[in-house]
Amino acid sequence: MLKQWKCAVLACLVLSALLAPAAFADGYPSKGVTLVVPWGAGGVTDVAARVFAPLFEKYLGVPVVILNRPGASGAIGTEYAYARPADGYTIVFSAETPATFRIMDVSRLSFHDFEPIMLLSHSEKIIAVAPESPYQTLADLVKDIRARPGKVRFSYSGAGASGHVQALLMMQKGALDFSATPFGGGNNALLAVLGGQVDFTSPNIGTVKDYIASGKLRALAVFDRNRSVYLPELPPITEAIPEMESFLPLDYPNCLMVKKGTPADVTAKVAEAASKAVADPKWKEFLENNWYVGLDSVRGQDMLSYWDNWASVVGWVLQDAGVAKKSPEEFGIPRP
Predict the structure, then answer these.
(1) Backbone angles phi, psi at 277, to 5 degrees
(2) How many domains does the chain contain in total?
(3) Residue 78, class by beta-carbon neighbours within 10 Å (0-12 exposed, 13-18 middle, 19+ buried)?
(4) Segment (H or E) for 298
(5) In which domain, by residue range, is 165 found?
(6) Which of 90, 123, 242, 252 is most exposed, with minimal Cβ within 10 Å?
(7) Final residue in a domain of this structure, among 222, 247, 272
């Protein structure tokens, strides 16, 4: 009798375990959700997340709380989110850096450790100088770099960040020899130009649009092979450095993802709420007013393909510059 009772209990436990994920998914969401932003407050990613979160909350139907976990180029916050259960209650509002975590040896994780929801938006990158700069065009800047190898100075935020990658692309593909110095953050890199410490930099267009409008900063080119959406008079960088054509566009978008293993029904509900949020007029207004470009048409597995291509370009640029801690080849990342 006891043996039969134990078998019955075991059968119930097994059945409960099998049915639990489906039952859980059907009840999602039943409590608040944490939106992890692996960057500090006030940055490009955080600004977008704080507009997205209340819209996401509106369509998900439960409170959405932002948790900033900055550090190690986004690795600390990403690791934090990965350590949480794969239940859809911890969602990552990521930037691009998981594509190079392993190469830079800051984390074992990559985008493939998460279920992709969608790309969201990005802020175009430009080449900019101070208003009193002698460079009126990008061609002027390139000409002076070639005339004075190693003398023209460039500022960027930090190793492996967008400005650093852009500088390396210009050096490697355009055969340009200039001095590149990290300043510990995008704002500091901008101030270095305005203060005359360096000659040029590569900020996000949305963060400097007021400087450009007031004449406190001069934009020379958009870091793309196409013209800027918001400053269409700006030439693409490929007009002066055509060798970069095949490596562009190289955007730095934010995106939404959940931990791999999250039930498919839960992931679908997250995606549904996110889709409604990015279609909301308030999100569209935010993009336009802050000069962001929407990329939410890239979803699911297409998002992973996007980041795979991105990792191929950026990973090998870092490797060829001697900046990468580990070779992309070690992780099966092909050279572009």
Answers:
(1) -65, -45
(2) 2
(3) buried
(4) none
(5) 126-247
(6) 242
(7) 247
* Cβ 198 vs Cβ 181: under 8 Å: yes
pTM, full prediction: 0.83
Count, residues in the chain = 336
Output the CA torsion sign for 328, 261, 67, 309. Answer: positive
Q: Which of 126, 168, 115, 49 is nearest to 303 (CA)?
A: 115
**8 Å CB contact between 182 and 159:** yes
Q: Is 86 exposed, middle or buried (CB count within 10 Å of its CB: 0-12, 13-18, 19+)?
A: middle
Give the residue from 50, 80, 103 showing the smallest Cα distance to 326: 103
CA separation, residue 308 to residues 60, 112, 218, 326, 331 (Å): 29, 9, 34, 17, 11
Q: 269-319 pLDDT, tens per residue? A: 999 999 999 999 999 999 999 999 999 999 999 999 999 999 999 999 999
Amino acid at 82: Y
